Amino acid sequence: MMLRNYRLRQFRSRWGQPGQAMFELALLVPVLCLVMFSIIEYSRVMNFEQELVDITRQGCNLASRGTALSTAATTIAQNSGSLNLSNSGLVIITSVARVGSADQVTGQATSGSLSQTSKIGNGVGSRATVPANIDDIFSNNSGQTVYITEVFYPLQQITPVAKMWGLVLPSTLYQVAYF
Hints:
By secondary structure, the chain is α+β, with helices and mostly antiparallel strands. It has one domain (21-178). It contains six helices and four strands. Strands 2-1-3-4 form a four-stranded antiparallel β-sheet. The chain is elongated.
């Protein structure tokens, strides 16, 4: 009998109060969910960004090798793999040249179903907005054409991390490449 009481006391002293484990679990579950959901969403966004980088480079590569802009945009949108840009995204391929002292859109083609406007310029003959390093190319190499591929892709969250913690994530991912 004495041995049995000793073992019972030893068991109780190891595990503390009966509700302690449940209380600790209740404290840790939200933190663990936040970490897990954050890792999932961040990983998805990083994967999408990598795919968009590859797609923009392929678009510029096609356009710079002489493929018609409309053909290049359609090819990129149709062969975008799991992103399915033909149905859920937008590819814009633009050619820009320096005309006089201003950068001007000399050609533009789009493919996809999103309704977004180019951040470079809209329509042939319109003024183009390009980064400073592209200005350097035009300054040092007259008569050059720069091909720019922009890709827009809607981000749909699969975890409740933004709602749980009040985070604001972008609704559309954007990637651009210059050749």
